[in-house]
Design brief:
The complex is a heterodimer.
Chain A lengths: L7 H8 L5 H7 L2 H10 L1 H18 L1 H4 L31 H36 L1 H15 L3 H12 L3 H11 L1 H16 L2 H8 L4 H9 L4 H24 L11 H8 L7 H29 L6
Chain B lengths: L1 H27 L5 H6 L5 H11 L5 H13 L13 H36 L4 H14 L3 H15 L14 H16 L2 H16 L2 H8 L4 H23 L1 H14 L5 H10 L3 H29 L7
Classes of the chains: A mainly alpha, B mainly alpha.
Chain lengths: 304, 312
């Protein structure tokens, strides 16, 4: 049944019905998709920022002139200069080096948190969308999770586990599960209505194989877009937690934690707050652009 | 209407029970013994055991939950481990601050994003529209605390137009000066989304036939935009205000820490740092309850905004 992807019959059938989005996408060949991606300014800008960030994170020890955690009491509160591009903090630590190293932490937070949300969210979403029996119980549990105002669930989890970067990632990851479940579930609903699924079932394809070969590949664009935008949301949420002192702990140079330390010196060293904030801003902008651009390119119909 | 409201309220019961179970489990299945926190790290084992017994921690989990719930429905949320007074007192003392912050925040957001969205849609592709789109994209990438710090720096430290921190009753002018920056900060979490939504739903409505008809029969342009246009674009806007109220409440947690407001958000954060579990539990439950009730209010607001929607 693998051949069902891309056969003329299936596409013709799918194109004729409103739910046939996944199949319709197949008709637009890889070339069209690549062209759409290249044409999108959002993908260009967002992609550049994200790639830059990955490079900075990977090369952090090479790019950072100094160790971000070693204090230098003689050079406290120095404004941006040639010696310290972004100045120094209350302990004389180099803020540029901290921001550069912070990119590693933020990227890790984004990937791990979204990894947790995606692993749990895709599994539950597929189960809810594919097995009618499971739909109701799963969605009721999600209703409960959604009854917590965003950050509050993460805060409750951190209250239990104790404030740390690792726990912040877990908490933010769990908080992101309902979003994934909802999107994956509705995507599975859409795919389930396609004739190739009926056809596969008619020839006796088992559920596991059906999910792996026919359902998951066809919901991949939703998953990619949700994950990309989810990374931005996770970095924002974790930075918020760290800012409250509930996430990364000093001297970890996480951007939110840096802003937390810097906020008490806003009157004498505003640059100390400015640079971590600017780093967050550019990063989130990058992932948001990339996510929005991917959504438009992968599925023009979703354009809002 | 009454029947709808009853039904809607009943629907929230299982959700709230679920929330209470979840909060209870999160805080009870955790590593670390609360009795140890009460007793202190050097307490002898007998004392810890005594405290365990007095807190009911030696009972099976379901017994603890049943006891907790039976006290909860009577309005007893337990006692603060730190201050030894009822948790409810803490919530009652701090909630008005958070409520005031959230309400003024919503007000500010509405006052900014709705006109901005309408104007951007009305002058589509103009410089104003582009500026709005740009502001929305930028606002989306700003953490709430960043906006708070920037406002604090510019308007409180640099220009000294507003006080740095603190809270006063809104009955006085000074109270409004105190809440202004925090409210803008809290609202900023929702402003970009609301602006974008107002713009896109206005764009849709302004292309409708009835808008053209209104113009054709000579209705004044302002009336066309507001009465014929905005009234019809209002529904999605209300939905977003409602859905994003949770975001607003989370933003309140961060904002209250920045501006040292004695609200429920700061209560939670300090309670977590002090490992004062009953207070955390109570506050999180209270936040969720507020959030769920707000979403019911939003449903009711639909009917007020759109006469086509009738309940019951």
């Amino acid at each position: 049944m693998a051949a069902a992807r891309g056969t003329g019959i299936e596409i013709a059938a799918a194109a004729g019905q409103p739910g046939g989005l996944g199949a319709r996408r197949l008709r637009s060949s890889r070339g069209t998709l690549a062209r759409r991606l290249r044409r999108s300014w959002q993908v260009k800008i967002g992609g550049t920022i994200v790639v830059l960030m990955i490079v900075v994170a990977a090369a952090a020890p090479l790019l950072a002139p100094l160790d971000p955690t070693i204090p230098d009491i003689l050079h406290r509160f120095q404004g941006p200069s040639r010696a310290h591009f972004f100045g120094t903090d209350s302990l004389g630590r180099d803020i540029f080096s901290q921001v550069v190293h912070g990119s590693r932490i933020s990227l890790t937070i984004g990937l791990i948190s979204v990894g947790i949300s995606a692993a749990a969210g895709i599994t539950l979403g597929v189960l809810a969308g594919f097995y009618r029996r499971l739909d109701d119980p799963i969605m009721r549990v999600m209703d409960v999770l959604l009854a917590f105002p965003n950050l509050l669930l993460a805060i409750a989890i951190i209250a239990a586990l104790g404030p740390s970067l690792q726990n912040a990632m877990i908490a933010v990851g769990i908080g992101g599960i309902p979003g994934f479940v909802r999107i994956v579930r509705s995507a599975v609903f859409r795919v389930r209505g396609n004739e190739y699924v009926d056809a596969a079932r008619a020839v006796g394809v088992r559920d596991v194989r059906m999910l792996a070969r026919h359902v998951l590949p066809n919901i991949s664009s939703e998953v990619i877009v949700t994950a990309t935008l989810g990374i931005a949301a996770a970095i924002l949420a974790a930075a918020g937690l760290s800012f409250l002192g509930l996430g990364a702990q000093p001297p970890t140079p996480e951007w939110g934690a840096m802003a937390n330390l810097a906020k008490d010196y806003l009157n004498i060293a505003p640059y100390w707050s400015f640079f971590p904030i600017a780093a967050i801003f550019v990063t989130i902008l990058g992932f948001n652009f990339l996510g929005d651009g991917l959504r438009d390119a992968l599925d023009p119909r979703l354009h809002r | 209407m009454a029947a709808y409201l009853t039904g809607r309220l009943l629907q929230t019961v299982p959700v709230l029970v679920g929330v209470s179970v979840l909060v209870f489990l999160i805080l009870h299945l955790t590593p670390g013994n609360p009795a140890l926190f009460v007793a202190g790290p050097d307490a002898p084992p007998e004392v810890v055991r005594d405290i365990e017994r007095s807190l009911g921690l030696d009972q099976p989990l379901y017994v603890q939950y049943t006891r907790y719930m039976s006290r909860l429905v009577r309005g007893d949320l337990g006692r603060s481990i730190q201050a030894h007074d009822p948790v409810l007192d803490h919530l009652v003392a701090t909630f008005p601050v958070t409520l005031a912050l959230a309400c003024v925040g919503v007000l500010w957001t509405g006052l900014v994003s709705v006109p901005m969205g309408i104007l951007a849609a009305y002058r589509r592709n103009s410089a104003l529209d582009l500026a709005t789109i740009f502001a929305v994209l930028a606002g989306n990438a700003m953490p709430v605390f960043a906006i708070g710090l920037i406002l604090l720096y510019i308007f409180a430290i640099h220009l000294r137009w507003f006080p740095l921190t603190g809270y006063q009753s809104l009955a006085t002018f000074d109270g409004w000066r105190h809440i202004a920056l925090p409210a803008i900060t809290v609202g900023s979490g929702v402003t970009p989304l609301l602006t974008r939504l107002t713009r896109s739903s206005m764009l849709e409505v302004l292309n409708q036939d009835y808008v053209r008809s209104a113009r054709a029969k000579g209705v004044r342009e302002a009336a066309v935009v507001i009465r014929h246009g905005f009234r019809n674009a209002l529904l999605p806007v209300i939905t977003v205000i409602g859905l994003q109220f949770g975001f607003l409440l989370s933003g309140a947690v961060i904002t209250e820490s920045i501006f040292s407001l004695p609200g429920m958000g700061r209560l939670v954060v300090t309670a977590i740092q002090a490992r004062d579990f009953p207070v955390v539990q109570g506050a999180v439950l209270f936040f969720s309850l507020t959030f769920v009730l707000i979403s019911i209010l939003v449903d009711l607001a639909y009917a007020a905004a759109d006469p086509r929607i009738r309940y019951g």
